Predict the 3D structure of the following.
Amino acid sequence: MSTLLDSAREDASRRDWQHLLHVDAVLLFGLFATSVFGLFVLYSAGGQDQSILIRQLVRLGIAFGAMVLIAQLRPQWLQRWSPWLYGLGIVLLVAVLAMGDVGKGAQRWLDFGFVRFQPSEMMKLAVPMMVAWYLADKRLPPTGWKLAVAGALIVVPVVLIARQPDLGTSLLIGSTGFFVLFMAGLSWRLLGGLTLLGAAGAPVLWHFMHDYQRQRVITFLNPEQDPLGTGYHIIQSKIAIGSGGIFGKGWLNGTQAHLEFLPERTTDFIFAVLGEEFGLFGILVLLALYTFIIVRSLHIATQAQDTYGRLLAGSLAMTFFIYIIVNTGMVTGLLPVVGLPLPLVSYGGTSMVTLMAGFGILMSIHTHRKLLTS
Amino acid sequence: MVSRITIKDYLFENRLFMQRSIQALIFAALLVAILIGRLVYLQVLAHEHYITLSDDNRIKILPEPPNRGLIFDRNGVILADNLPSYRLEITPEQVHDNMDAVVDRLAKLVNIRDIDRKRFDRLRKRTPVFKPVPLRFHLSDEEVARFAVDRHRFPGVEIVAGLSRHYPHGPLASHVLGYVGRIDERDLQRIDTSSYSGTTHIGKVGIERTYEKRLHGTVGFRQVETNAEGRVLRTLVRTPPVPGDNLYLTLDLELQNVVEQAFGDRSGAAVAINPDTGEILALVSKPTYDPNLFVNGIDTKTYAALRDDKLQPLFNRALRGQYPPGSTIKPFVGLGGLEQGITTAHAHTFCPGYYQLPGKERKYRDWKHSGHGTVDLTSAIAQSCDVYFYDLALSMGIDRLYNFLSQFGFGTRTGIDISGELPGLMPSRQWKRATRNQPWFPGETLITGIGQGFMLATPLQLASATATLSKYGHRVRPHIVAATQSHDDPGLSPVKVETVLDIPVENRNDWDVIIHAMHEVVQGRHGTARKAGRGAKYQFAGKTGTAQVFGLKKEEKYNAKKLARKLHDHSLFIAFAPLKHPRIAVAVVVEHGGSGSAVAAPIARTILDQYLSRPRS
């Protein structure tokens, strides 16, 4: 009897600190473990450069800080501000197209003098929030013109970002919106119809693509066609992963990465470094960590107490998955090179902060529940 | 608000959301399964393939060319050396800019001439893109330093340190040594290309060519790890190259120099040989050229000048110059007469200054218009009486003449170890039938007896035949390399003396008669070369020769003053010394030099004096 009571008390106390800080310990553990693992890979990929490691640590600190900060906000508050955030995002996206900085051949940045800002990052959160806000008081599954409005809310920013042009982010944002609809029960028949429409629309999309985007598709279909140009990335990353074998060449021993055959090895292609040095085994460990995070996130979604919370949480969980599958698919040569980082592992700032802010929202949803039973 | 919320079916929505979460999870699991399938393919099934590609990526095999063997003369004087030199190479595959632009930028650091560019472009077309193509040779230290500073701006461009062949004595003995040059397409057909990977030069002529295999050595290899730019990071495995063997020649550079000096501006050839061993002591062909010009590609202008020079400095007269032996053949013909019992030492012939075949009109002239009067074999040789030898040759007939003279090596290559030797010509009935489809005429036998007509011999053949005569028919193969030295063994391995033939001696006296007659030539009272023999501190034997470059008409008289230089007679002389136990035999040909006694004999004398005045080595 006494042990049962003790464990109950312990359970209550643990909930207490988690509720006090509005942090989900299980999810936090998963994110933390993945980040640490990622740091090891990055240290090797960056040529054992400590300054890269330190900068990444600082970014992780900021990102985790942002997560905890956002977790403090009540979901109801987030819900109320969703349309404003979304509206601001649309305005900024239009502003970017009108007067944004050009970097790497694409307009993505807004320069406010003291800070450079990428509005598309904000939209990664604002779009699912907005769609969830819109559907929150509607009868589910959405049908008819309600569905059309929700669709429009997604398509407008997607088109604006695609025109920057930033295909990767625009697809990602499209999928976050899509997953809100999916979670809301979008009918399978309609899904099938959309897929068909997409297939039919591909040639039209091709027509509107920029040259470098077309080149990426061509290269994806046949990388050997231009082994020293655009196909180089894919060929070299496949060699890196394939030569890693089951257990890899060992940490810091990847020849592809260290001899500089592998391009963008600290950022978009860091998965290849992992595959080369830690082998299939190392990749499975990372995938297990990711699965742990995704399952926990979906669990949080199912535990959410209102429609807004569960739609948003479900969408964020699946967006995280989309990040992973698109990046790994790209590096292993299954998908075109679209330029998405590997979450929590790739070197890079802005997207990581956005990602962790998303987990902050998940934690906020989970820890601000009204406990009916305890 | 309240009324709208009641519309929502919470239980249904809860169930729907649960369903969708599970479906999303299944969707994710499906995609992850595909991903893992892909990874299993890459990392397990195709692992071998990719590990090979990865090694190919990082591991390159670099050949390390061996150092070419050095060449020394018999006294250890270096004749062919290797000097350090730097060359600039570009590997086209690693150059991502426009090649012309890269070369333009390089031209600001190092001097790049048009000829360098042209050669580079030409070589680039037939070299695989992953192989380096040389742009410049022999960079100065300053150029090397300037490039080193800016090296990072030029991926794919390397400075390669190497050794470059150098002939410190320039034109001296160039026809013996020959030279190396860059490997060209014709060379590629005679070499195993893999054993020449990394090697840029190959022996083109002379000893450099004959001894190419020994001088070249064995190529070494380095397995190196490179980065994506192709820069070598570290060596994994190294098989060091084996340097080529050093060669010690039989040549005496000092003697060679004296001979070349003795020729002055005249063109011709001289060969000095040790009759016991066949060692070549000096081998001269004048004029000479500077072999260093050829090592890194001669420019067209200089080459054209050498090629079109009337005196043909590139032509190795000692080995390839085929001259009528003229009267130098007489001792051999005379010996043939004695050994075959056709004549005796005391048999007399009357020389009226011409000879006529029985029943024929044509007069075969003696060089001495007034005739030599009554001559025996000794005086016929000493005074070089043509009529005596017309008569003797006719008695012998072409077949016996051919058989006997062939034993001395006339008409066949001596087999010397320098490339390019020609065989001369010892005419015979069969030869004439085979080449001209004509019968042999007696008149042709006559002129063969005085070394004219069809008969041709190289200076080397004459020297070798003279050596054989001096040694009573013991004929050895002339050779220029005395010993080789491999890099791991400081000792010398001497080249074996090879006896080609011991000519059967019927009567040693016959040979003594001939040798005595040749002694009379230089040191007798009536000898044709008595001037050249005057004052010698040793006894020696010789024979003059004057070879007609063109045939005189019946009654025409040779008049040097009226003829163009290129139609002047060649001046020949053969000799050996000392008379007893000869140590040196020589043959000298001075082109268009006139009579043998006046020009060729003094040169031969200089050789003998120089060689015999020194202590024996």
The interface with chain A takes residues 1, 4-5, 7-9, 13, 16-18, 20-21, 24-25, 28, 31-32, 34-36, 38-40, 42-44, 46-47, 49-51, 53-54, 57-58, 96, 225-229, 233 of chain B (CB under 8 Å). Residues 1-6 of chain B have pLDDT under 50 and may be disordered. The first strand of chain B starts at residue 59 and ends at 64.
